[in-house]
Amino acid sequence: MARYLAQRIVAFIPILLGVSILIFLMIRFVPGDAIIAMLGTEAGMLTEAQRRALEAYFGLDKPVIEQYFVWLGNALQGDLGLSVRHGAPVLQVILQRFPVTLQLAVMAMVIALAVGLPLGILSAVRHNSLIDLIGRLFALVGLAMPNFLLGTLIIYVLSVYFRILPNSGNFVSLTTDPAQNLGQMIFPAITLGFSFAASVMRTTRSAMLEVLGQDYIRTARSKGLRDAVINRRHALRNALIPVITIAGVEMGYLLGGTVIVEEIFALPGLGRLVFNAISQRDYALVQGIALFIAFNFVAINLAVDLLYTAVDPRITYDRKA
Amino acid sequence: MIAKPELALERPKEESLLRRLLRNRSGAVGLVLVAAFLITGLLGALGATPYPSLEQHPRDRLKGPSETYILGTDMFGRDLASRLMEGAANSLQVALLSVGLATLAGTTIGTIAGYIGGTLDNIIMRVMDIFFALPALLLALLVVTVLGPGINSTVLAIAVVYTPIFARVARGPVLSVKEMEFITATRCLGLPESRILLRHVLPNTLAPLIVQVSLALSWALLTEAGLSFLGLGTQPPRASWGVMLSESRGLAELAPWLMLYPGIAIMLGVLGFNLLGDGLRDVLDPRMRGRM
Predict the structure, then answer these.
(1) pTM of the full predicted structure?
(2) What are the Cα distances from residue B131, in Å, to A19, A273, B160, B170?
(3) Which residue of B has its CA nearest to A292?
């Protein structure tokens, strides 16, 4: 196990390096001068000497390859540069906002699993029944409903019919006032969790259906085991593997895909930070967030692989046999 | 007298793909939705809308659905139905161009990597892995950051996200097909490699690609609408379902139809391509039948 883990971590290094090169190059491809991008029209007021000094300060006078290695070296030491707009280190700005996004993603995942798993299991066990029909309908709507539409609808219903605004910019963190925080987070989490629940439901249902058709389920049934035991102990356990995969992948996407929901509900998370950084041309911040999210994404994929062994003892990553 | 063996010689009639698709429930519904979408988009592109999509009717601002304006008007008195049709044309244009680009680039990369194999394959697929390490929406946002907002950036952003996916989907079947005996046979015949690849290997990898194209189109629709909603995709006054939905936000209480109809349009479009993809998978790959 330890050896497998080490191997996987080593395999991730080139991918992360590649991602860092990709992100670095993309930002360098932004048309126009980085100094002008930072200062806007005020850049026109710079004297030649001031401009040179600024370029030297940000290392922009060096060749691109050297710039990359300087940036990478600093990044490895936790220094992702300085956010021009926030006037603070990029990593510090990211870590300030990350808890909001993380909480949102975790809540969305809990909602998705709480709805998607039971619905998927019931749909498969009662194949072609009314509940199966409802489940499949839910899955279709969830698949087709973009989160910006659902979010807009939820805000509309809340404000017009219940006269409440979920959030108007006065965000309260979980540690300050848990009740108020959960009240602000629940609707964004439902918005994010909805389509996620649909894909969990679809995956659970199809995996359960496949497993329920296997010979060993018939054997278990002919032994006289109760349906509940068969479904729980024999079917669900084996059906969980694809569900874990999908949940892991979706969790990764959630961490990078909360932009729209945070924007609609005015939540100060990572998604809104990256959106603002893009529109304000705060490239060091964009670069830092992209690298941060990619790192998390890759780490989650590794965690998913490790979870398999817990669910399915047949999967071992040691080469003994 | 011996019975003529004619019957045995007759080949079983092959049903057309369309026929089989129409008998599949997902496929049939998907096909109808996609066809309706295509027609709407085509009419929108040709300008065959009830009113010019940018024509303002200052006296008829925020009018509900009526005989004059079947789906109502927006805050400038522009006809919503006409704008939805132009939006359909716009979404279709972005989706078809971006997925077309991604299919072309991805299939080329994946097929060549799989067919040649070895170090080249290894390098290409590791580079593709790098793109997979970034969440799709973030990658799309990064591309838009570099290129600036607009329709062309949206097309490229979606294409960049989907190229690695098509490369992976195309490579898999190539790996197994190239080991098959009929490929060895073509090689024995002395056919040039390029001809073997294009005429014999590629056609056998099409089924999963076609399914993927349909699913990619639905994602492209969603992404175009999402980026436009954020103000990074299609720029107003050009109509896009995402832009229209975003504009409806402050007006939902006064004019709920402004939110309702673009929302329904997006959902039906996405659903159509998704169902079509599911149907195609059932029809083209019998092993997956009935799973979903």
Answers:
(1) 0.85
(2) 7, 22, 9, 16
(3) B134
